[in-house]
Amino acid sequence: MDEFVKSRIKQVRKGDQNAFGEIVELYKDKVFQLCFRMLGNSHEAEDISQEAFIRAYINIERYNIDRKFSTWLYRIATNLCIDRIRKKKPDYYLDAEVAGTEGLTLYSQIPASQLAPDEEVSKIELQEIIQNEILKLPEKYRAVIVLKYIEELPLLEISKILDLPIGTVKTRIHRGREALRKQLRHI
Amino acid sequence: MNRCPEIITEYMHEYLDGEILPEHKNILTVHLKSCADCRQHFQELEKSIALVKSISHVQAPADFTQKVLMNLPKEKKKVSVKRWFSRHPVLTAASIFSIFMAASLLSHWSGDDFSVTKNPDLVIENNTAIVPEGETVTGDIVVKNGDIRIDGKVDGSVTVINGEIVNGESYMASAGQVTGDIVEINEAFEWLWYQMKHIFESTMNMLTGKEK
Fold it and tell me: Residue A17 falls within a domain, yes or no?
Protein backbone atom coordinates (compact mmCIF):
# COMPACT_ATOMS: atom_id res chain seq x y z
CA MET A 1 0.00 0.00 0.00
CA ASP A 2 2.85 2.39 0.77
CA GLU A 3 4.17 1.73 -2.71
CA PHE A 4 0.76 2.45 -4.19
CA VAL A 5 0.53 5.73 -2.32
CA LYS A 6 4.07 6.69 -3.30
CA SER A 7 3.48 6.10 -6.98
CA ARG A 8 0.26 8.09 -6.86
CA ILE A 9 1.99 10.96 -5.10
CA LYS A 10 4.64 11.07 -7.79
CA GLN A 11 1.83 11.37 -10.32
CA VAL A 12 0.19 14.10 -8.26
CA ARG A 13 3.45 16.01 -8.16
CA LYS A 14 3.40 16.06 -11.91
CA GLY A 15 -0.01 17.68 -11.50
CA ASP A 16 -2.20 14.64 -12.18
CA GLN A 17 -5.47 15.22 -10.38
CA ASN A 18 -6.88 11.81 -11.19
CA ALA A 19 -4.09 10.23 -9.16
CA PHE A 20 -4.99 12.52 -6.30
CA GLY A 21 -8.57 11.28 -6.56
CA GLU A 22 -7.32 7.78 -5.75
CA ILE A 23 -5.57 9.08 -2.66
CA VAL A 24 -8.71 10.86 -1.53
CA GLU A 25 -10.69 7.65 -1.98
CA LEU A 26 -8.20 5.81 0.18
CA TYR A 27 -8.24 8.19 3.13
CA LYS A 28 -11.53 10.06 2.95
CA ASP A 29 -13.35 8.00 5.58
CA LYS A 30 -10.56 8.21 8.12
CA VAL A 31 -10.06 11.93 7.65
CA PHE A 32 -13.79 12.60 7.70
CA GLN A 33 -14.17 10.53 10.84
CA LEU A 34 -11.34 12.35 12.56
CA CYS A 35 -12.92 15.71 11.75
CA PHE A 36 -16.39 14.52 12.65
CA ARG A 37 -15.35 13.32 16.08
CA MET A 38 -13.31 16.44 16.68
CA LEU A 39 -16.03 18.85 15.58
CA GLY A 40 -19.19 16.90 16.25
CA ASN A 41 -21.01 18.21 13.23
CA SER A 42 -21.12 16.62 9.82
CA HIS A 43 -21.33 19.94 7.93
CA GLU A 44 -18.18 21.23 9.51
CA ALA A 45 -16.51 17.84 9.34
CA GLU A 46 -17.07 17.73 5.61
CA ASP A 47 -15.89 21.29 5.20
CA ILE A 48 -12.69 20.73 7.12
CA SER A 49 -11.86 17.35 5.65
CA GLN A 50 -12.36 18.76 2.15
CA GLU A 51 -10.06 21.60 3.09
CA ALA A 52 -7.49 19.14 4.45
CA PHE A 53 -7.30 17.28 1.15
CA ILE A 54 -7.10 20.47 -0.86
CA ARG A 55 -4.25 21.71 1.32
CA ALA A 56 -2.48 18.40 0.97
CA TYR A 57 -2.77 18.73 -2.80
CA ILE A 58 -1.49 22.30 -2.86
CA ASN A 59 1.42 21.52 -0.54
CA ILE A 60 2.28 18.13 -1.95
CA GLU A 61 5.78 19.36 -2.82
CA ARG A 62 6.42 19.89 0.87
CA TYR A 63 5.52 16.35 1.81
CA ASN A 64 8.54 14.17 2.52
CA ILE A 65 7.91 11.08 0.43
CA ASP A 66 9.99 8.88 2.75
CA ARG A 67 7.59 9.46 5.63
CA LYS A 68 4.16 8.02 6.08
CA PHE A 69 1.64 9.92 4.01
CA SER A 70 -1.26 9.32 6.39
CA THR A 71 0.68 10.93 9.24
CA TRP A 72 1.18 14.06 7.20
CA LEU A 73 -2.45 14.10 6.08
CA TYR A 74 -3.81 13.56 9.62
CA ARG A 75 -1.59 16.36 10.79
CA ILE A 76 -3.09 18.79 8.31
CA ALA A 77 -6.59 17.65 9.24
CA THR A 78 -5.98 17.79 13.00
CA ASN A 79 -4.50 21.26 12.81
CA LEU A 80 -7.44 22.49 10.76
CA CYS A 81 -9.87 21.01 13.28
CA ILE A 82 -8.07 22.59 16.22
CA ASP A 83 -8.05 25.95 14.43
CA ARG A 84 -11.75 25.62 13.77
CA ILE A 85 -12.51 24.73 17.39
CA ARG A 86 -10.52 27.73 18.62
CA LYS A 87 -12.20 30.13 16.23
CA LYS A 88 -15.57 28.62 16.82
CA LYS A 89 -18.19 30.95 18.10
CA PRO A 90 -21.15 29.15 19.58
CA ASP A 91 -22.68 28.65 16.17
CA TYR A 92 -24.85 25.61 16.43
CA TYR A 93 -26.86 24.63 13.45
CA LEU A 94 -30.20 23.53 14.73
CA ASP A 95 -30.82 21.67 11.51
CA ALA A 96 -27.44 20.01 11.48
CA GLU A 97 -27.30 16.33 12.15
CA VAL A 98 -26.41 15.59 15.73
CA ALA A 99 -23.09 13.92 16.26
CA GLY A 100 -23.18 10.15 16.04
CA THR A 101 -26.75 10.00 14.83
CA GLU A 102 -28.52 9.37 11.60
CA GLY A 103 -31.16 11.95 10.84
CA LEU A 104 -31.26 13.36 14.33
CA THR A 105 -30.99 17.12 14.56
CA LEU A 106 -30.74 19.52 17.43
CA TYR A 107 -34.46 20.17 17.00
CA SER A 108 -35.16 16.63 17.96
CA GLN A 109 -32.67 16.88 20.77
CA ILE A 110 -34.43 19.70 22.56
CA PRO A 111 -37.33 17.63 23.84
CA ALA A 112 -35.01 14.66 24.27
CA SER A 113 -33.91 15.97 27.64
CA GLN A 114 -37.46 15.51 28.85
CA LEU A 115 -37.39 11.79 28.28
CA ALA A 116 -38.49 9.70 31.21
CA PRO A 117 -35.39 8.61 33.14
CA ASP A 118 -36.38 4.96 33.14
CA GLU A 119 -36.75 4.90 29.36
CA GLU A 120 -34.28 2.61 27.75
CA VAL A 121 -31.36 4.43 26.29
CA SER A 122 -31.17 3.44 22.67
CA LYS A 123 -27.93 2.77 20.91
CA ILE A 124 -28.18 5.99 18.94
CA GLU A 125 -28.73 8.01 22.09
CA LEU A 126 -25.80 6.35 23.75
CA GLN A 127 -23.56 7.21 20.82
CA GLU A 128 -24.83 10.74 20.97
CA ILE A 129 -23.98 10.99 24.64
CA ILE A 130 -20.51 9.62 24.12
CA GLN A 131 -19.85 11.98 21.22
CA ASN A 132 -21.03 14.91 23.30
CA GLU A 133 -18.73 13.92 26.13
CA ILE A 134 -15.80 13.76 23.71
CA LEU A 135 -16.75 17.24 22.50
CA LYS A 136 -16.60 18.49 26.07
CA LEU A 137 -12.92 17.67 26.28
CA PRO A 138 -10.53 20.57 25.73
CA GLU A 139 -9.19 20.28 22.19
CA LYS A 140 -5.74 19.12 23.19
CA TYR A 141 -7.17 16.12 25.02
CA ARG A 142 -9.84 15.61 22.41
CA ALA A 143 -7.28 15.28 19.63
CA VAL A 144 -5.25 12.57 21.38
CA ILE A 145 -8.34 10.64 22.48
CA VAL A 146 -9.83 10.68 18.97
CA LEU A 147 -6.53 9.68 17.38
CA LYS A 148 -5.94 6.94 19.93
CA TYR A 149 -9.38 5.40 20.41
CA ILE A 150 -11.30 6.24 17.27
CA GLU A 151 -8.58 6.26 14.65
CA GLU A 152 -6.78 3.60 16.70
CA LEU A 153 -3.32 4.95 15.99
CA PRO A 154 -0.19 4.01 17.93
CA LEU A 155 1.28 6.55 20.37
CA LEU A 156 4.34 7.10 18.22
CA GLU A 157 2.25 8.08 15.22
CA ILE A 158 0.09 10.37 17.33
CA SER A 159 3.23 12.12 18.55
CA LYS A 160 4.30 12.65 14.93
CA ILE A 161 0.88 13.89 13.87
CA LEU A 162 0.71 16.41 16.68
CA ASP A 163 4.43 17.17 16.59
CA LEU A 164 4.66 16.59 20.33
CA PRO A 165 7.08 14.51 22.38
CA ILE A 166 5.67 11.09 23.13
CA GLY A 167 5.69 11.88 26.87
CA THR A 168 3.37 14.84 26.29
CA VAL A 169 1.06 12.67 24.21
CA LYS A 170 0.88 10.13 27.04
CA THR A 171 0.16 12.77 29.66
CA ARG A 172 -2.63 14.16 27.51
CA ILE A 173 -4.11 10.72 26.94
CA HIS A 174 -4.01 10.05 30.68
CA ARG A 175 -5.76 13.32 31.46
CA GLY A 176 -8.22 12.79 28.65
CA ARG A 177 -9.04 9.33 29.99
CA GLU A 178 -9.54 10.69 33.51
CA ALA A 179 -11.85 13.39 32.18
CA LEU A 180 -13.86 10.87 30.19
CA ARG A 181 -14.04 8.59 33.22
CA LYS A 182 -15.68 11.33 35.25
CA GLN A 183 -18.08 12.15 32.45
CA LEU A 184 -19.02 8.62 31.47
CA ARG A 185 -18.96 6.61 34.69
CA HIS A 186 -22.66 6.99 35.36
CA ILE A 187 -23.79 5.64 32.03
CA MET B 1 -8.60 5.90 47.07
CA ASN B 2 -7.55 9.23 48.50
CA ARG B 3 -5.07 7.47 50.70
CA CYS B 4 -3.69 5.42 47.84
CA PRO B 5 -0.42 6.50 46.33
CA GLU B 6 -0.59 8.50 43.06
CA ILE B 7 1.68 5.94 41.51
CA ILE B 8 -1.18 3.43 41.39
CA THR B 9 -3.11 5.69 38.98
CA GLU B 10 0.09 6.08 36.99
CA TYR B 11 0.36 2.32 36.70
CA MET B 12 -3.24 2.10 35.56
CA HIS B 13 -2.46 4.42 32.69
CA GLU B 14 0.74 2.59 31.88
CA TYR B 15 -1.35 -0.56 31.76
CA LEU B 16 -3.94 1.08 29.50
CA ASP B 17 -1.18 2.33 27.21
CA GLY B 18 0.02 -1.26 26.98
CA GLU B 19 3.42 -0.18 28.26
CA ILE B 20 3.49 -1.41 31.83
CA LEU B 21 6.59 -3.06 33.27
CA PRO B 22 6.02 -6.49 34.80
CA GLU B 23 6.98 -5.28 38.32
CA HIS B 24 4.56 -2.34 38.06
CA LYS B 25 1.88 -4.69 36.87
CA ASN B 26 2.39 -6.89 39.92
CA ILE B 27 2.12 -3.93 42.28
CA LEU B 28 -1.05 -2.79 40.50
CA THR B 29 -2.66 -6.23 40.56
CA VAL B 30 -1.95 -6.69 44.22
CA HIS B 31 -3.25 -3.25 45.06
CA LEU B 32 -6.44 -3.60 43.04
CA LYS B 33 -7.27 -6.82 44.86
CA SER B 34 -7.17 -5.07 48.19
CA CYS B 35 -8.54 -1.60 47.31
CA ALA B 36 -12.16 -1.31 46.18
CA ASP B 37 -11.87 2.39 45.34
CA CYS B 38 -8.95 1.86 43.02
CA ARG B 39 -10.68 -1.12 41.50
CA GLN B 40 -13.69 1.03 40.72
CA HIS B 41 -11.51 3.78 39.34
CA PHE B 42 -9.79 1.32 37.06
CA GLN B 43 -13.07 -0.20 35.88
CA GLU B 44 -14.45 3.25 35.13
CA LEU B 45 -11.40 4.02 33.02
CA GLU B 46 -11.79 0.79 31.10
CA LYS B 47 -15.48 1.39 30.67
CA SER B 48 -15.05 4.88 29.28
CA ILE B 49 -12.47 3.63 26.80
CA ALA B 50 -14.83 0.88 25.71
CA LEU B 51 -17.63 3.41 25.29
CA VAL B 52 -15.49 5.74 23.20
CA LYS B 53 -14.38 2.85 21.04
CA SER B 54 -17.96 1.69 20.63
CA ILE B 55 -19.23 4.70 18.75
CA SER B 56 -19.76 3.50 15.24
CA HIS B 57 -17.43 4.51 12.53
CA VAL B 58 -18.70 7.17 10.22
CA GLN B 59 -18.11 7.40 6.51
CA ALA B 60 -17.47 10.37 4.30
CA PRO B 61 -20.42 11.49 2.16
CA ALA B 62 -20.77 9.68 -1.16
CA ASP B 63 -19.73 12.59 -3.37
CA PHE B 64 -16.75 13.49 -1.21
CA THR B 65 -13.93 12.69 -3.65
CA GLN B 66 -15.68 14.38 -6.53
CA LYS B 67 -16.12 17.53 -4.48
CA VAL B 68 -12.45 17.59 -3.54
CA LEU B 69 -11.41 17.22 -7.16
CA MET B 70 -13.80 19.94 -8.24
CA ASN B 71 -12.29 22.36 -5.78
CA LEU B 72 -8.65 21.70 -6.55
CA PRO B 73 -6.72 24.50 -8.20
CA LYS B 74 -6.70 24.08 -11.95
CA GLU B 75 -4.60 21.22 -13.20
CA LYS B 76 -1.23 22.35 -14.42
CA LYS B 77 -1.45 22.98 -18.15
CA LYS B 78 1.59 20.79 -18.60
CA VAL B 79 -0.31 17.69 -17.60
CA SER B 80 -3.45 18.24 -19.56
CA VAL B 81 -1.36 19.07 -22.60
CA LYS B 82 0.69 15.96 -22.03
CA ARG B 83 -2.44 13.89 -21.72
CA TRP B 84 -3.76 15.40 -24.94
CA PHE B 85 -0.52 14.58 -26.70
CA SER B 86 -0.54 10.99 -25.56
CA ARG B 87 -4.03 10.67 -27.02
CA HIS B 88 -3.04 12.23 -30.36
CA PRO B 89 0.35 10.81 -31.33
CA VAL B 90 0.24 11.89 -34.97
CA LEU B 91 -0.64 15.47 -34.15
CA THR B 92 2.05 15.37 -31.48
CA ALA B 93 4.66 14.36 -34.01
CA ALA B 94 3.44 17.01 -36.42
CA SER B 95 3.48 19.77 -33.84
CA ILE B 96 6.91 18.83 -32.51
CA PHE B 97 8.16 18.86 -36.09
CA SER B 98 6.72 22.28 -36.78
CA ILE B 99 8.14 23.66 -33.53
CA PHE B 100 11.62 22.55 -34.53
CA MET B 101 11.13 23.85 -38.03
CA ALA B 102 10.01 27.24 -36.86
CA ALA B 103 12.84 27.40 -34.36
CA SER B 104 15.53 26.55 -36.87
CA LEU B 105 14.13 28.91 -39.46
CA LEU B 106 13.79 31.73 -36.99
CA SER B 107 17.34 31.21 -35.82
CA HIS B 108 18.42 32.32 -39.29
CA TRP B 109 16.33 35.40 -38.86
CA SER B 110 17.55 36.43 -35.47
CA GLY B 111 21.14 37.28 -36.43
CA ASP B 112 21.61 40.90 -37.42
CA ASP B 113 24.90 40.67 -39.23
CA PHE B 114 24.99 41.93 -42.73
CA SER B 115 25.35 39.15 -45.24
CA VAL B 116 25.05 38.82 -48.94
CA THR B 117 25.25 36.05 -51.50
CA LYS B 118 28.82 35.66 -52.60
CA ASN B 119 29.38 36.87 -56.08
CA PRO B 120 32.61 38.25 -57.52
CA ASP B 121 30.80 40.99 -59.39
CA LEU B 122 29.11 42.44 -56.30
CA VAL B 123 30.64 45.41 -54.55
CA ILE B 124 30.04 45.84 -50.83
CA GLU B 125 29.91 49.32 -49.30
CA ASN B 126 28.58 50.22 -45.82
CA ASN B 127 26.14 47.34 -45.52
CA THR B 128 25.01 47.91 -49.05
CA ALA B 129 25.58 45.50 -51.87
CA ILE B 130 26.07 47.25 -55.16
CA VAL B 131 25.63 45.84 -58.59
CA PRO B 132 28.01 48.17 -60.43
CA GLU B 133 26.96 49.93 -63.56
CA GLY B 134 27.63 47.97 -66.68
CA GLU B 135 28.05 44.71 -64.81
CA THR B 136 25.68 41.77 -65.04
CA VAL B 137 25.44 39.55 -62.01
CA THR B 138 24.38 36.06 -62.91
CA GLY B 139 22.42 34.10 -60.30
CA ASP B 140 20.08 34.94 -57.43
CA ILE B 141 21.14 37.47 -54.81
CA VAL B 142 20.05 37.40 -51.19
CA VAL B 143 20.92 40.36 -48.98
CA LYS B 144 20.35 40.12 -45.27
CA ASN B 145 20.37 43.04 -42.83
CA GLY B 146 21.42 45.49 -45.48
CA ASP B 147 20.39 47.19 -48.71
CA ILE B 148 21.16 46.55 -52.31
CA ARG B 149 21.66 49.11 -55.00
CA ILE B 150 21.28 47.91 -58.52
CA ASP B 151 23.09 50.09 -61.01
CA GLY B 152 23.85 47.28 -63.41
CA LYS B 153 21.90 44.14 -64.24
CA VAL B 154 20.95 41.01 -62.35
CA ASP B 155 20.25 37.86 -64.24
CA GLY B 156 18.17 36.22 -61.51
CA SER B 157 16.03 37.12 -58.51
CA VAL B 158 16.85 39.61 -55.77
CA THR B 159 15.72 39.05 -52.20
CA VAL B 160 16.32 41.61 -49.48
CA ILE B 161 15.76 40.62 -45.90
CA ASN B 162 15.60 43.36 -43.30
CA GLY B 163 16.66 45.97 -45.76
CA GLU B 164 15.56 47.53 -48.98
CA ILE B 165 16.34 47.89 -52.58
CA VAL B 166 17.87 51.27 -53.17
CA ASN B 167 17.56 52.33 -56.73
CA GLY B 168 20.46 53.97 -58.35
CA GLU B 169 20.34 56.90 -60.67
CA SER B 170 18.72 54.88 -63.41
CA TYR B 171 15.64 54.42 -61.29
CA MET B 172 13.26 54.18 -64.19
CA ALA B 173 15.03 51.29 -65.75
CA SER B 174 15.53 49.34 -62.54
CA ALA B 175 12.61 47.01 -62.98
CA GLY B 176 14.02 45.78 -66.19
CA GLN B 177 17.44 45.35 -64.69
CA VAL B 178 16.39 42.30 -62.70
CA THR B 179 15.24 39.37 -64.72
CA GLY B 180 13.77 37.42 -61.80
CA ASP B 181 11.61 38.38 -58.84
CA ILE B 182 12.30 41.22 -56.46
CA VAL B 183 11.32 40.43 -52.91
CA GLU B 184 11.69 42.51 -49.78
CA ILE B 185 11.17 40.85 -46.43
CA ASN B 186 11.03 42.91 -43.29
CA GLU B 187 9.05 40.89 -40.76
CA ALA B 188 9.89 37.67 -39.01
CA PHE B 189 6.67 36.14 -40.18
CA GLU B 190 7.34 37.03 -43.76
CA TRP B 191 10.79 35.57 -43.36
CA LEU B 192 9.30 32.36 -42.11
CA TRP B 193 6.82 32.27 -44.93
CA TYR B 194 9.58 32.91 -47.42
CA GLN B 195 11.63 30.06 -45.95
CA MET B 196 8.71 27.69 -46.02
CA LYS B 197 7.95 28.56 -49.61
CA HIS B 198 11.59 28.12 -50.41
CA ILE B 199 11.72 24.71 -48.76
CA PHE B 200 8.49 23.70 -50.38
CA GLU B 201 9.75 24.71 -53.79
CA SER B 202 13.03 22.91 -53.44
CA THR B 203 11.22 19.85 -52.16
CA MET B 204 8.91 19.96 -55.13
CA ASN B 205 11.87 20.41 -57.46
CA MET B 206 13.55 17.47 -55.82
CA LEU B 207 10.44 15.35 -56.17
CA THR B 208 9.90 16.25 -59.79
CA GLY B 209 13.58 15.75 -60.50
CA LYS B 210 13.90 19.24 -61.86
CA GLU B 211 17.26 20.97 -61.61
CA LYS B 212 17.20 24.39 -60.18
Answer: yes
Could you report the per-residue pLDDT of A40-96, keeping only the tens digit for each?
Answer: 999 999 999 999 999 999 999 999 988 999 999 999 999 999 999 988 755 554 445
Question: Do residues A96 and A46 make contact, with C-beta atoms less than 8 angstroms apart?
Answer: no
CATH of the domain at A68: 1.10.1740.10
Contact B182, B165 (CB under 8 A): yes
Q: Which candidate from A37, A54, A127 shows the least CB-CB separation from B71?
A: A54
Identity of the amino acid at A173: I
In a domain, A69, yes or no: yes
Structural domains of chain A, count: 1
Q: What is the pLDDT of residues B33-73, one digit of tens each?
A: 999 999 999 999 999 999 999 987 899 999 999 999 999 88
Handedness of CA A48, A73, A99, A139 (dihedral sign): negative
Q: Determine the distance in angstroms separating the CA of B48 from the nearest CA of chain A, rounded to an integer.
A: 6
Q: Identify the residue among B14, B47, B49, B52 best suited for mutation to test binding to A, counting A beta carbons within 10 A and taking the highest.
A: B52
Query: B168, B143 in Cβ contact below 8 A?
Result: no
Q: For residue range B137-167, what is the model confidence (pLDDT) as tens digits?
A: 888 888 888 888 888 888 888 888 777 777 6
What Cα–Cα distance (Å) separates residue A8 from each residue in B8, B10, B63?
A: 48, 44, 21
Residue A132: give the domain boundaries.
1-92+102-185
Residue from A8, A23, A28, A128 whose CB has the most chain B CBs within 10 Å, to mutate: A28
Other beta carbons less than 10 A from residue A107's beta carbon: 12
Per the domain annotation, does A97 fall within a domain? no
Instruction: Give the ipTM.
Output: 0.79
Query: Within B55-150, where are the H helices?
Result: 64-71, 77-87, 89-110
